[in-house]
Structures are given as structure tokens and as C-alpha cells.
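DM from R.C. (forwarded with permission)

"hey, sorry to bug you on a friday — could you get me a structure for this? deadline for the figure draft is monday and I only need the backbone to look sensible"
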Amino acid sequence: MIYIAQYIKSPLNYVGGKYKLLNQIIPLFPNDIDVFVDLFGGGFNVGINVNAKKIIYNDTCTQVVDLLKKFYTYDSEIVHNMIISTITKYGLSRSDLYGYEKYGCNPNDGLGKYNQDKYYKLRNDYNMDPDWIKFYTLITCSFSNQIRFNSKGEFNMPYGKRDYNKSLQNKLKLFIDTMHTKNIEFNNNDFRDFVFPNNCFVYCDPPYYNSTATYNENGGWTKQDEEDLLNMLDFLHSNGVKFALSNNLKYDNPLLAEWKDKYNVHYLDGDYRNCNYQKKDKSKDNEVLITNY
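My reply, with the result:
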């Protein structure tokens, strides 16, 4: 495999996303990969940077899977123009054109309340009539550009004092343009229902059991999920399928603590304490990549 010198960063922000660890994770992958399975694809930071004949992105969040499919379908300039059209319709700010002063804001404080009412109007409209452009436009203004849905399937991230700035525009363009150079298949399955193709390498970055991230606020990843995943990886191993599992040993997870000793544990130099100022658990991370090869 030829490694990418400058890794592509996803325009979708997930707590614990692996972008900062790519230079440690990807060199630990096998040299030749026919089919790369990104089983818990999330923001696609890992999969987009892997050089494989085919990449399969899988995630249980239907809205994100659909959004990435659209990014893969449309040219980056078309996507950009559709976002700008939505921004214009709702009267959201254009700091890329006018800076922050036009909106009476200090750049150090973001966009203050300027977009607040407009953002919540857009969020309400999206939840009443969802579509992918509204969804991504919301993300550009949401808190830390993050994604969260409530139990009713409604997008509920608060306003984040930001907009579709030049940096985000450049990130989105590079991400979409890179997607279009790769052979990608999209799936929207629970990992237990995923059908693994022949000659695949499986990468797993699941929610971390007993963590305090937003995806676990409502018991999103249970002990049963953890058991099922580890058993599935054992099954793949017994059938000669190579896998790599990302996880964090700082959390109280006896299942993982015992299971990992059967395989190779690579300790990574990573710390997410500063990635989100509302992250509840500030203790030091102990990120690992567990492999069976």
C-alpha cells in the first residue's frame, strides 16, 4: 500500500475521530488490501485515507450514510453551490466573503448570536422535512460542527457560533474530490448484519464501552454490543480474516481488558482532552490499535 503523505480530514466532526492518529494507525495496516471494510465508518477519516482496490463504508446513522453517498455522487462545486444557496435562503452569515466585522462580531468569539435564530429555523425545517443539503448546512453552524440526533431521529445539536467558513469549504472540497478518486461502497447496517466479502481487511472504531461521549448518552453502546463485537472479531480471526480494532484502555471495560491479550496491542500516542471543551472525562487517553496479524 502507498501511504498518503498528507492525510485528508473529514468535514464531519466526531468526538474521538481518528484524524490525529492516522499517521500511527495506517502504517500498522497490511501492505496490500483488496477490500477495506470501515465497519463503524463515522466521519470516514480512516477509510478516505486508505489505498485499497475497494473501500466499504458502513455506519448505522442513516443520515450520515446518505450524506456521504451524495458527496460521492455530486461534484464538489455542485455541493458547494447548493450549500451557498441554502445559506442565502436562511440569511446565514458568509464570513468567507465579509469576515466577522460585518456581523458585529469579534473573530476571537466566533459569530456570536448572529446566526442563532436562523440556525434554529433551519434546524426546525430540516426536522420537519429532512434533506441532505439542509443537514450539512446545519453541521457547518452546529456546536463544534458535530452531529447528534435524539430518540425521535431529530437533529438536536445546539448552535455553535460558526458558519461555512473558508477553511471548512476547502476541507469539504478536498474530501469530496478525494472520494471521487476511489471505489467506495456504502452500507447502512448493524455490524452484526454485515456480510463480509472475500479478501477483506476489517477496521473497527466502535463506540467505546463505558465512555462518556455523546453517542453513549442514552446507552448507545451496551455490554451486549461489546460482547457481540469481540465475539465477531474472534470468528473473523478463526476464518483467516485480518482485522484492526481501535479502542481506549482508560475506560472500565473488563471484557476488552481480557480479550485483548489474545492479539497484538499497539499503544498509540494520542490525547483528545482538548478536542471538545465540553468533554466530561478529562483523564488521559490510552488509545490502542489491536490487530490479529
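R.C.: lifesaver. The CA atoms of residues 11 and 171 lie 6 Å apart.
me: no worries. The chain has two domains: 19-66+180-291, 76-176.
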